[in-house]
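dumping these here so i dont lose them again. two proteins, back to back, each one seq then structure tokens. dont judge the mess
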Amino acid sequence: MTRIVITAMIACGLSAGIGYLLLPILRALKAGQSIREVGPTWHNQKAGTPMMGGLMFIFTAVLCLLCSIPAMKDLSVFYTLALALCFGLVGFLDDFFKVKFKRNLGLTSLQKALLQMAVSAIYLYILYRSGIMTSQLYIPFVDVTVYIHPIAYIFFAMFVMVGCVNAVNLTDGVDGLCGSVTVPVMVFFAAVAVAMGRLDMALLPASMIGGLVGYLFYNWHPAKVFMGDTGSLFLGGLVCGLAFALDMPLVLVLVGLVYIVETLSVILQVGYFKITHGKRFFKMAPIHHHLELCGWSEWKIVIVACTVTAALCALSLLA
């Protein structure tokens, strides 16, 4: 347990230090964010803010785990880290094309979806073959386990993973939002891993807790850097990867409720727009932009979302 706490503390300082070195490099490379024309008009002042800040906590997680290898007994944690890195690579390619061609859209939706499905399928197969993941679906609170055919379960899991990754990605739209919401989620997974006796697995979310806090030094409003798709897809991969590595995917419904609400707000907005031939259900989607247009400050949105997530994570520990 002491090793886990120390890892989180070291990760915080390491992430902040990496940010101090990385920020001037991103500015020199002119790796600035392009702001979508359909977003809130006051977000235009954020144009040019360096992106790919997610490299801060990505490097931190990799370094922390590599340095911990001599004391580790269960190296399966690197399966989940590799998954997150693969998703982060997809995000990096997306960010790269945005910067290179000075546009807000990088890879096409189809390209990202195919890459994400391929990465998810490989990870799930490895977990299943290694015996880490079963095809028995545990339903929290009711203490019921449902057996599902392995092939059907993997397809279900792929759908959950791709949806989760993109939900986390959608949450990255307000300064500090995605990072702040993900901190209590990582605390939850670290606590669960410790309770299950998987202390080596707990090192990954622990390093991410510290890494995200260090990153938030630069991303809290007004943001000096954005995590970009590099960071948000990495976080999405880590969140869903940990859920399946700990064999409790349905817990994502609670601990990831903010991510889910963000996604549902977009689905509802698009569906309502098509059905009503041009009318809008929300003033703007995702829902954090709707709240901004309702007068909420970015600070308030982040604090409320983080508080709700922390409460749901605490509730989920009872499951």
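---- next one ----
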Amino acid sequence: MFIEPQLGKKEQDGRAGWIEVVCGCMFSGKTEELIRRLNRALIAKQRVEIFKPAIDKRYHDEKIISHSQREIRSTPVSFANDILLLAGDCDVVGIDEAQFFDEAIVDVCNYLANSGKRVIVAGLDMDYEGRPFGPMPQLLAVAEFVTKVHAICAETGELASFSFRLTENNSQVMLGEKDKYEARSRKAFFEGMKDRKEAEGTKPKA
């Protein structure tokens, strides 16, 4: 379990900020861990601001809600730079579903950390094809602390780190839950991708 290097109120002379990234596949508990860390900061009486991409309305328009229904209030934003305008004089900034933000999210997180804030980011590290997702690789590179969480493979029961899309949709961004995705181990994921490509190759052309 991640233990914070520092908790409590910021000293008058300030302190160094940092970036934490929680990454993994669908259903691995990324948002659950984000909420846990933010709640601990609130218990420590720190000033916390929390953001999520405005397009993510799966559970609630404003709140961040995990698959297990834990929730915390947040502010939906359309662009990464909006976070700078809204973060204010807080101690901790939480950001969920970072993979959906534009590339400016990396500079935003660096700026906030350089300003003495603790920045906690959660997001998918890979898309439905097993490729690095959006700005996540850059965020992982600049973060002081990285936690990769795992789900359980729906096919084998082993540890899973890939998100397998169950529907035929080639858009990189497609919001969904267990009706559209399942967590898979490496072997099960790539076997599923191979079977899908073979099935697509046998379909008659329109």
